[in-house]
Protein: Transcriptional regulator with XRE-family HTH domain
Amino acid sequence: MAINLRRIRHVKKMTQEELADSAGLSVRYIGAIERADVSASVTVLGRIAEALGVEATDLIKRTAVHPHRAR
Structure:
């Protein structure tokens, strides 16, 4: 989730502060989630997804960190 959250937030051009304000969470908590220091509850996941304008599943789906390239 940490990778997806950071990626989506950057795509949406939102700062951690803007996301935290929109989701009703603290900036420190958003930062901790992005660093994978803490896990978000389902409720918090929903609030973050809503603030970002995405589906909650977009935040938790697996993404390839280092995709293999066909040669």
